[in-house]
Each structure stands twice: as C-alpha cells, then as structure tokens.
Design a protein that fits this description.
The protein has helices at residues 11-32, 37-59, 63-81. The chain is an all-alpha fold and 90 residues long. The protein has a domain at 36-82. The chain starts with 10 loop residues before the first helix and ends in a 9-residue tail after the last helix. The model has no long low-confidence stretch (mean pLDDT 88).
Length: 90
Amino acid sequence: MTKREYNRRTDEERLSELETQLEKLKSKVQQEQRSDAPVLKDIKKVRTALNKFSQVCANHGRTDMVNSVMAFLHTLEHQAKSVPSSMQPK
C-alpha cells in the first residue's frame, strides 16, 4: 500500500478561502437585515405551492396555465433578488 500524499495549502490559498467565506457571511447578514426579510422567507412556500399547482395543470393538459404560472414565478423570484427603490438608501 502506497503512502498518501498530502498537499498543504499555502497561506495565500487559505487566506483567499477565508475571504470568500467572509464575503458569503456578510451577504447573508445583509439579506437577514433587510426590512422585507419575512417576505423573502415566504417566497419558498409560494414557490412550492405554485410548482405543485403547475404540475396539476400539466397532468390535466393545461399547458397554457403552466406557462403562466412559471412566468409569474420567474418574475417573482427576479423581483425578490432586487432591492426596490423605496428601500434603497437616499
């Protein structure tokens, strides 16, 4: 059985990893501090319900409704990612 080779990370590699983790945590905290955070949490529930509804529509041949629901869901998710002008700092 051969010995295992270990590749030690350099200090720069470890530092860059920690910096990316820090950026992720900062963005997470920023998202949680938004005044519309409860709305953003409920989007997951809405997405699940709409996906179930669109599946029922597809099972019963209503592809027109499936397309409408998916378009609405896409628009809703796009709007959730952006910050509305009423909430932007002046």
